[in-house]
């Protein structure tokens, strides 16, 4: 029996991917003007970014504990070994909640094989980890083999991204207010990365073209064997920038694939419109 994969909506993979690979989908929620909407099901990224541009204050919340418990219990009843690939514990309480519910379910089903991975990743960094887990599961690997491989994969995942305005990240507590350097009037673009699951400001660069060039430089410095990787780009409603970045990456590194998708509503609620993020591995698997 193949291992069943579960993932939450913060991985920013489309619903079609979940359905095609029979992955359980656990949506986080976005609160806009008091209305709580399930990510990807009741709100799409473009709707979120339009609301933010109009000044809406947006909050996010974890997947419903009831939904998590129902998902775990259903799999336990069927005796299917399962792996939940979860959003970074440094950015959400989703992982901790899932671990508590796992313990509850195991009291009732002590023989149920369920592992939960704290990816320490976000957006398509998390999404690439989900894709990797799904590939391993479909190839017939055991739960322990997949868990070990995906944990190793996540440790090697680089997140390099830029946002139009760090105020969104500061407002949501994702970075300190002291770190929220805002340079819109000076055309200063902040560059950030993820370190042990946390968002860390890296550099301040003037102008979009210089930011793109610097991202390519960082990829050259940190990336290993990029020509044989799938590199991912997620964007906050700025496809033009994503495809411009894709062209630069393909010219410089000729990777196996450059995968592009939106920064989803939950991550986008904190990063804001105009976000551009690049994900790649910094070591061999």
TrEMBL record:
GO terms for molecular function: lipid binding. Keywords: Lipid-binding. Transmembrane segments: none annotated. Pfam families: DegV (PF02645). SUPFAM superfamilies: DAK1/DegV-like (SSF82549). The keyword Ligase does not apply. InterPro entries: DegV, DegV_C, DegV_domain_contain. May bind long-chain fatty acids, such as palmitate, and may play a role in lipid transport or fatty acid metabolism. This is Fatty acid-binding protein DegV. The lineage of its organism: Bacteria, Bacillati, Bacillota, Bacilli, Bacillales.
């Amino acid at each position: 029996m193949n291992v069943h994969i579960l993932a939450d909506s913060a991985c920013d993979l489309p619903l079609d991917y979940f359905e095609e690979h029979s992955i359980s989908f656990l949506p986080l929620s976005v609160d806009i003007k008091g209305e709580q909407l399930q990510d990807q099901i009741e709100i799409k990224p473009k709707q979120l970014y339009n609301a933010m541009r109009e000044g809406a204050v947006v909050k996010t919340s974890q997947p419903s504990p009831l939904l998590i418990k129902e998902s775990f219990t259903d799999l336990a009843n069927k005796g299917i070994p399962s792996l939940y690939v979860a959003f970074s514990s440094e950015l959400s309480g989703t992982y901790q909640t899932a671990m508590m519910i796992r313990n509850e379910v195991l009291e009732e089903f002590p023989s149920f094989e369920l592992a939960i991975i704290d990816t320490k990743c976000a957006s398509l960094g998390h999404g690439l980890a989900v894709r990797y887990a799904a590939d391993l599961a479909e190839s017939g690997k055991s739960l322990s083999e997949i868990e070990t491989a995906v944990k190793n994969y996540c440790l090697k995942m680089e997140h390099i991204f830029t946002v139009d305005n760090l105020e969104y990240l500061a407002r949501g507590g994702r970075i300190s207010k002291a770190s929220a350097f805002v340079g819109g009037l000076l055309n200063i673009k902040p560059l950030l990365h993820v370190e042990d699951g946390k968002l860390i400001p890296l550099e301040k660069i003037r102008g979009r073209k210089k930011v793109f060039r610097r991202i390519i430089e960082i990829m050259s410095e940190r990336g290993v064997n990029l020509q044989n990787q799938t590199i991912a780009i997620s964007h906050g409603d700025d496809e033009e920038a994503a495809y411009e970045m894709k062209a630069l990456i393909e010219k410089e590194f000729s990777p196996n694939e450059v995968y592009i998708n939106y920064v989803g509503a939950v991550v986008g609620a904190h990063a804001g419109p105009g976000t551009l993020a690049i994900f790649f591995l910094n070591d061999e698997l």
